[in-house]
Predict the 3D structure of the following.
Amino acid sequence: MSERIEVLIPEEEVDKRISEIGEEISKAYAGKTIHMICILKGGAMFMCELAKRINLPVTMDFMSVSSYGDDTKSSGIVRISKDLDESLSGKDVLIVEDIIDSGRTLSYLIEVLKQRGPKSIEICTLLDKPSRREKLVKVDYSCFSIPNEFVVGYGLDYAQKYRNLPYIGVVRFD
Ligand code: IMP
Ligand code: MG
C-alpha cells in the first residue's frame, strides 16, 4: 500500500487566508498585546505564519497536550505533557490550534486555561471539521472549514510525517 498526498488547499490560498485572519485579529485586538498560545506540535507552523501577519505587540507561549483514554472512547480529558512557561493572569489570550475535530481537546483545555485568570480568551484555528463535532467549542477565528477527510501539511501530520508541506493535503492510500 502506498501513500500519496492530494492537494486540498494550495499554498497561495492558505497564505492569503492567513493574511486575512491576521488583519481581522489585528483590528479586533487594536491597542492590546496578544498572548498567543500555540498547541504543539500541529499548531507550530500556523502560529509562526499568523504571528508574522499581526501588526500588534505579541507574546508567545507553547503547550503540548495529548488525549487521555483509549482510542475508541476518549474521555475528553487531555493530558498536558508540556505546560505553559508563563502565567495567563490579566492577559488577552489567543489559543492557536491546527485543527478542531471532535472538539474534545479544546473544550477541555479552554476550561483549564480560563481558571488561570486571563483577561480574555479566544480560539483561532487553521482548519475546522464541523461535521465531526462532539463537544461544543466557540471558535472565534477559523481559516477554513473542511470536509471529513484526514488532512496533513502546514503543521499537521500523519504518523509524524508531512508537517512541513506548505499546503493542506489529503492522504490517499492506493
Ligand atoms: P479533537 O478536536 O479533540 O478531536 O482533536 C483535534 C486534534 O486531533 C488536532 O489538534 C490534531 O492533532 C488531531 N487531528 C484531527 N483531525 C486531524 C487530521 O485530519 N489530520 C491530522 N491531525 C488531526
Ligand atoms: Mg493538535
Notes: The chain is about 20% helix and 40% strand. Residues 12-146 form a domain with the Rossmann fold fold (CATH 3.40.50.2020).
